[in-house]
């Protein structure tokens, strides 16, 4: 009986705890998706720069990223008509669509195994699909309208939220600097990919800020997650009106 009670104990968790667990899982997946997505973009961009005439084709990867894009668009279109919070809606849709927010691996092949009438997808073609995925992901994060509330740092009601507030203030200052840079940039449009490398970094940096802001709005945040935000902010250096963005990956602890 003791073993049976241990196995079923989780069934009696308070609703608040279940909702917090759903939110933690959702935010962790969102952060992981963003880390992998922008790293895939950076690596492929560097490969194209160093090997502009590469004969490798990416038909399968392009199909996988197209699926990522379609699922993101489907979520965005469906969410307004679904009951519940964003994490609850995500949990239901993820159950029905297991590949939602799953970023595929970029894999190429130098052996032509295509049908005669099938178009070859080269690295620049795949890059455009990833760019579209990033723009759609930005909209996905932007539409997460969770309202701010008093959070419990490290899951305890008795803990002061000062550390969270400090990180929030630092993030807000970083956000203001990035928005000032954006005002000076004429080529940064909401629905199109920037043509200049500096503008691309600015776009990715603005998405970084949106993702970090969502983490800091969690009902329950751990020390590791707060540290992730601090380390992520260090990778956005705005000095003398220029942004230096470190694209290296930092895994988010769920």
Automatic annotation (TrEMBL):
Name recorded for this polypeptide: Uncharacterized protein
InterPro entries: DUF1666
Stored Pfam families: DUF1666
Keyword annotations: Coiled coil
Residues in coiled coil: 164-191
């Amino acid at each position: 009986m003791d073993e049976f009670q241990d196995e079923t104990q989780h069934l009696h968790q308070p609703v608040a705890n279940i909702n917090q667990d759903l939110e933690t899982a959702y935010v962790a997946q969102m952060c992981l998706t963003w880390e992998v997505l922008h790293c895939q973009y950076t690596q492929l961009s560097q490969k194209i720069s160093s090997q502009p005439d590469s004969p490798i084709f990416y038909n399968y990867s392009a199909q996988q990223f197209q699926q990522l894009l379609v699922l993101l668009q489907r979520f965005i279109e469906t969410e307004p008509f679904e009951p519940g919070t964003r994490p609850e809606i995500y949990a239901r849709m993820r159950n029905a669509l297991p590949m939602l927010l799953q970023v595929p691996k970029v894999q190429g092949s130098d052996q032509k195994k295509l049908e005669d009438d099938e178009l070859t997808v080269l690295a620049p073609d795949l890059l455009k699909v990833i760019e579209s995925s990033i723009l759609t992901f930005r909209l996905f994060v932007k539409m997460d309208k969770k309202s701010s509330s008093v959070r419990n740092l490290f899951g305890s009601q008795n803990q002061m939220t000062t550390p969270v507030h400090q990180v929030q203030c630092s993030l807000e200052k970083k956000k203001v600097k990035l928005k000032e840079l954006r005002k000076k940039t004429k080529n940064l449009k909401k629905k199109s990919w920037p043509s200049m490398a500096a503008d691309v970094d600015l776009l990715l940096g603005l998405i970084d800020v949106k993702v970090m802001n969502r983490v800091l709005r969690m009902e329950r945040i751990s020390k590791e997650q707060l540290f992730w935000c601090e380390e992520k902010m260090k990778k956005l250096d705005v000095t003398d009106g220029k942004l230096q963005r470190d694209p290296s990956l930092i895994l988010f602890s769920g």
